[in-house]
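INFO batch 0412 | record 1 of 1 | parsing
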Amino acid sequence: MESNTKPILSHDAYTVGWISALPLELAAARAMLDHVHPPLPQGAGDDNVYTLGAIGKHNIVLACLLSGQMGNNSAAVVAARMTATFTAIRFSLMVGIDGGCPSDEHDIRLGDVVVSKPGKTDGGVIQFDFGRTVAEGRFIRNGALNAPPTLLLNAISAMQADQNLYRARIEQHISSVNSKHGREEYAHPGWENDLLFQSHYDHGGDLPTYKHFRDSRFQQAYILQGMGGLGKTQIVLEYLYQALDFQKLKETMMPETRTSEGNRVAVLRWLESHDNWVLVFDNADDSNFSYEDWIPDDKGNPTLRQILFTNRDERLAGANIVNFKENIPLMSQAESVDLFNMTNSTTAGASDRSRESVLALVERLGKLSLAITLASAYLREYSSVTVTEYLKLLKNFSGRSKLFRYKRSFSNYNHSIMSTWEISFIKVQADNPQAAEMLTILRFLENKGVPFDRLK
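INFO prediction complete | emitting tokens
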């Protein structure tokens, strides 16, 4: 945009209307002007705010939609007022920033300028509420508007020819605009900052999990909630295995300290000074523990920092510091059967393993992944036991288990998990009393700190 201005022109000198939906788009439009013209008087019924100017030999009127009022109605009002004040306008353009999905037919890239023209089945102007894009990338159109004016279509053909012969001209124009009005926030951010989804990802419709897809450049915290045995820990572990590279953490050893407080500070300092990490609080069900003391400060512009909690009760740890909470549902009946079959591939007792007996078993186990996995392991180890016999064991143990005498903190905990544990323990006790005695002793020890030599 030139600093000098031209003499005041009449209303009839302006032949092109340019409407932007957002102030950011209007700023880009102003940057395209070669000259800015002084404002002209408007009628009493015209509340639009115009920027007048010229690009080459074309005199142009710029306007923006009302602040906070998007859509067809607002655009129609602005266009009607503009053409009433500038009666010589030959056509108006709606120019703005939009998104698109590339396809084999349309190679759309970030930063492209897209100009519509008539196609095989439409006139080239498609009203945004006359169709929708489905998950497969297809646009289902149920309406269209008239084609652009003939003058514009001829101009497009001429520009396409010029682009083939004089490609450098457009690049020079863009470079000139950037040099005059370049600002850091409008500069290319660099390929390393692209936020792209996997090509095979299928976005579901109206899912609350859209909140997951936030700008990953900021530290985020999530909670996975659900009763014991749903598989919360396994979900987190699978996420870590797929998404994380622990090599950098292994190479960058944190300083050793002698106190737990020193360890905590060392961990926090390391996390605050590094990016690309995931911090997991598994089974965060202790209401007396201050998890907030273990959360690093969100300083600067951290990238790919994520914090995951798993717990059973939304009133407990992390509930007040998370960005997103996901309640893990029970598996469906079909998923439960698939898990059982996948974890128990043995053919022993196959004559008893009818669909009805397996359905009865997974229902008895509450469709909990942990309970199904434990039962499957038992049947795989003791292949002479049939599914029907195991169901009888479940009914007997669930009614008399001594462990159920104690009141649990979580009333929604499914007793089928305890039953499967006790069935397995009783069997171990009968087959190998020494192993059962060792397990009884180990229950008093921290499970993460038992020396392997003690188990030999």
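INFO post-check: The mean pLDDT is 72.
INFO record closed
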